[in-house]
From TrEMBL:
Protein name: Translation initiation factor IF-2
InterPro entries found in the cross-reference section: EF-G-like_DII, IF2_II, IF2_N, P-loop_NTPase, Small_GTP-bd, T_Tr_GTP-bd_dom, TF_IF2_bacterial-like, TIF_IF2
Family per record: Belongs to the TRAFAC class translation factor GTPase superfamily. Classic translation factor GTPase family. IF-2 subfamily.
GO molecular function, one term: translation initiation factor activity
Primary role: One of the essential components for the initiation of protein synthesis. Protects formylmethionyl-tRNA from spontaneous hydrolysis and promotes its binding to the 30S ribosomal subunits. Also involved in the hydrolysis of GTP during the formation of the 70S ribosomal complex.
Span list, region G-domain: 193-341
Limits of the Tr-type G domain: 190-357
Cellular localization per UniProt: Cytoplasm
Amino acid sequence: MKRIYELSRELGVSSKKIIEILSGLGVTVKSSLSSVGEEEEFMVRSTIEAENKVEVSKETKKEEIEKVEVENKDLQKENATKVAIKEAPELATKEKETEVIEEPKVEEKKILYISDGMTPREIAQKINVKESEVIKKLIKLKTLATINQALNISLIESVVKEFGYEPKLKEEESLTFEETEVENVADLQPRPPIVTVMGHVDHGKTTLLDKIQKTKIASKEFRGITQKIGAYQVEINGKKITFIDTPGHEAFTAMRARGANVTDIVILVVAADDGVKPQTIEAIQHAKAAGVQIMVAINKIDKPGAQPEKIMQQLTEYGLIPEEWGGKTIFVKVSAKTGEGIDELLEMILLLAEIMEYKANPKTLARGLVLEAKLEKNRGPVATVLIQKGTLRVGDFVCVGAASGKVRALINDRGKRLKEAGPSTPVEILGINMVPEAGDSLIAVKSDKEAKLMAEKMLNRKKELQIQRMKKPTLSCFVQGTDLSEVKELKLILKADSQGSLEAILTSLAKIKEENVTISILSSGTGGISESDVMLASASQAIIIGFNVRPSNTALKLASEEGIDIRTYRVIYDLIEDISKAIKGLLPPKYEETILGRAEVRQTFKVPKIGLVAGCYVVDGKVTRDAKVRVLRDNVIIHEGELSSLKRFKDDVKEVNQGYECGISIKDFHDIKENDIFEIYKLVEVAC
Ligand SMILES: Nc1nc2c(ncn2[C@@H]2O[C@H](COP(=O)(O)OP(=O)(O)OP(=O)(O)O)[C@@H](O)[C@H]2O)c(=O)[nH]1
């Protein structure tokens, strides 16, 4: 949130001008003291930027058009082949009548192949204009959109026509459902905020969620029955709040890694008799990476040892400064046990929601997100869906992930049958033909046929996404294949063996300066690289940097599934040099390691002439004689080197597989202890 006068100062234009622009966008503001949200700020910025833009000269434009034409020819060729291969009359392209193209007046018609769900950024790249130009045209079309927002097909058509192109749908993308409707501001109405509770183990997340549900629902309900459907709503003075019932940042980040960001507000629970703990910090980092609002609930204030002031003090270190100390974070003292402070907490959530103005259009076909799904004996596939926009009604045709069907029944968190469910409502839906996955989207459509086609497309998209998920950023490929004029953000997650080295790394990183690149540290901490780090990297497109630490077995496995680049270093200089090179695009596509396996030391014995031999058990993968080895003790690297011998009983062998025992000795290293882990790896060249 920013006040108009602050924005006016930043942009060097008058507050009046900003108010005018906003009013043109349908946003009413009272005065220069009023605040605007990020989206409005973005729109104002792009409008001013677009206005300031000098007209592109005719020559440049001509060049650009020629470039697009070459691209078009290629695309036409590609398209023709696809048509020939795949005849699908029911998917017939919904082609709009060619419109007369007025501007720019050059040569023949310029065809631009478009597909549903393109974003303003993709359109800008395709027609070689600035993103702000596209946003400007969208504003002209009375549409607010961010650069990465998927647009519906008719809007894409209108926008590219604005640029003087004749839009044509790509054959395989020709389904006519609306991918993401861009809302008309006038249709948006306030919706209940969606809240997730996070915090350290045992700080009282579950108790708090239960207490809120019990006090605010059960006592007032007829039979007092509440059921767990993954989320519930409470009502305070006629205003609703939606709580996601799966506390913790793991579930939150796992959803985000799948592209699903549902939460508006995170309630960070910290026990007043304990303090800020590792998972408190993790939760802050995960919530910040997701860009959601954080509110603090200092819990267990009924306990004799409660020291709420201490918690407030501790949290300032993480940028959460209470309002009463001049900061922006709302802190509420509560007891999930006695119920003290809970009303205030709920009021504060509503206040924050009012300031943030969470809105959605209730009038369109519904869109939602699956929180949970299961197969039930007498009910068939059941999915709990959180409606994000539109209204879902019994009888609506829906596609839910790869499933489809007609909504047979809608049941709310109190077990009550509903006829319809609007934005932010969690509902169980019955009537779909299979069990979808958590994180899948629900899309209501106009017909059964459309629902089935959509489900098929969703299935294909899921497969594509899986492939895309493997294409996570890597350090070597950081700047390659990207437009250098664009500001790039290198997102890092840092783990080190000690606080001292962590600070040294952070200080050195802060000194790296490169135009158009910003380095963001999403999280940093001491200890081995955990699954939670990998999930955060996956959800935020980040790279993990480890200093003298290694990933745990499960983190390693997850990283390979998610395609996360984990870089580990033993010398700070090397770490900093790699990052400096990466952001300059100088880091050569280098050798990266492939982990072959891990062996656990079960016992050690001294052998004359050879030295110390470790009797090992191969717990994962394999050990090969010519590979490199890293000795780990509690996931901290003790040594890196090479094997000097690999034996099965008395014989030298080339490799030993998982599940077998072997004797390993390491070149020039004898400080081996029982339970040490030998990580066996080799170096392979990687291409971007
Ligand atoms: N005295 C007191 N005890 C509380 C309060 N809130 C929770 N507890 C107790 O603290 C313990 C942990 O609470 P949980 O709600 O299970 O904590 P959690 O954060 O959900 O824990 P995990 O699910 O393990 O992450 C339980 O024994 C609760 O009864 C409180 O406000 N006051």
